[in-house]
Every structure is written in structure tokens, then in C-alpha cells.
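look at this fold:
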Amino acid sequence: MQHGPAVRRRKLGAELRSLRARAGLTSGEAARLVGWHQSKVSRIETGTSGTKTADVRLLLDAYGVTDPRLRELMLALAGADEGDGRDHWWHAYRGILPTAYRDFISLESQAGGMRTLETTVVPGLLQTPEYARAVTRAAVEGADEDQLDTLVEVRIARQDVLRRRTPLRLSAVLDEAVLRREVGGPEVMTRQLTRLVEAARLPHIRLQVLPFSAGAHIGVTGPFVIFSFSSASDLDVVVIDHLTSSLYLERKEDLEAYTEAFNALRAHALSPEESLEYIAARAGGA
């Protein structure tokens, strides 16, 4: 387990090393192309030191990388949201959002797919403003109204990934408790369930309900997220949230274990069609 920035450096370095090899260059040749010492290229590739996004652009140019999504992903891994002036919407909230949260948002914005198990609340990407406010008020003790406004604004802004030209593919397994927990009161919960029904009908969103009748299951250990990246599958990562931090698992065996767990949860859950019917019935008060 590692924290986000360390994982990003390792993944960025590994991908840059792969791109260099694909370009048929040694580390020394790559260094000469961009006017560096070879040791700098080595430190970047091993993830032992951070790197500026300007340096990543130099390397991508030297390696002939023109794929815009891959370039954007590499820049996100380099921390393009942390002070280089690039136009990322969350950059305006740097003084408010914890680094770990900004790190999560940057990965979410670049991911092609997201698989998530939720055991307590509706996924943030599908929350209504009123529901998001009730959850945030409970989670952020002592927050004043202005802080709540800002955090809810960020939560809703994140949902743009589901509306972009090539939307994020979201597959979520929701424990039945998520739908039965009355967050914010009956009216707020009814509107939230209605929002889930609308989302479940979209082609890029797959919702499945894991009923109480499924009994004990592998998901009882807690919620998790698996991010997948279209341009570079070896950059996939599992994110596990804790009260004060997020942990990132990126070893092949970790990814395989969580992928198998997610597939098992889907197999025990109601089908997407049955889940839609169940959520609609809950929304209607049945």
C-alpha cells in the first residue's frame, strides 16, 4: 500500500521507461535529446524523485508520443493539477481540498473506467446536491455553511466526467444498505433514488444492488474503487478510503484480487435490470 503521490511517481516512471524503449532509445540517448544528465532520466523512471510537467512534456516529445489522452494521463500522473497553471477545474480549490482528494480527482478525471463497491452511501458521482450536502455535513465535523457549499460544489463538478464527449464508464455495486439508509430525510432520499434510476438507464452506467439476502460477502471489508485507463492498462489502480487518508494499491496481484472480488460481488448482486426495478420501487415508496 502506498499513498497517491508515490504511486503516481512509480507509474509515471514505469510508463515513461516503456515509451522510451518503444522509441528505441537508451536512457543516455534520451537524456542527450532533452539536454539532461542520464541520472535525471533514471531517477524519473524509477520514481525516486518527482518531476515537473514541463519535463514530462519534453520526454513525450522526444519519444514521439502524440496520443492526446496518453499525454494528458502522463501529465496528470506528474501532478498537472498542482501548480503548473494548467486548466484543471479543481485547481481553483487548492487551498481548500486536501492533497489526497485532489489526487483522487485528477485520476478520476483521466480514467476511462471506474468500478466501485459502495457499502454505506451513494457514489459521489451519482449524488444529488441535497444528498451530497447531508453526507458532507456528517463526514466533515465542524464545517460551516460556506465550507459545505464549496465541498458540495466540488462533488457536483466531479460528475462532469459522466457527461463529457467520451464519458467515464461507471460500474457500481451498491449494498442494499445504501438505498435504505435515509440520508437527509425522506424527500432528499426520494430525489436521490430517482436520480439513481435516471443514471441506471444511461448506457455508460451500470448499477447493481447487492441485497441483504446475499448474506456475508467479500465486500464486508469495506468500499473500494478500481480506476482503469484506456491509454495504458498497466496504470490501473485500486483506491481504498480511510478516515484521514486514501491508500493506493497498484501491484498486479492486488489489482487481480480486487478485480476478482468485484466480479464475485456482481455475480451475487441483482442484475442491472432487477436493480433498476428495485431502486425505482424504493423511489416510489414501495
User: Anything to note?
Assistant: The first helix runs from residue 4 to 22. The beta strands are 113-118, 169-175, 205-210, 224-228, 237-241, 246-249. The mean pLDDT is 87.
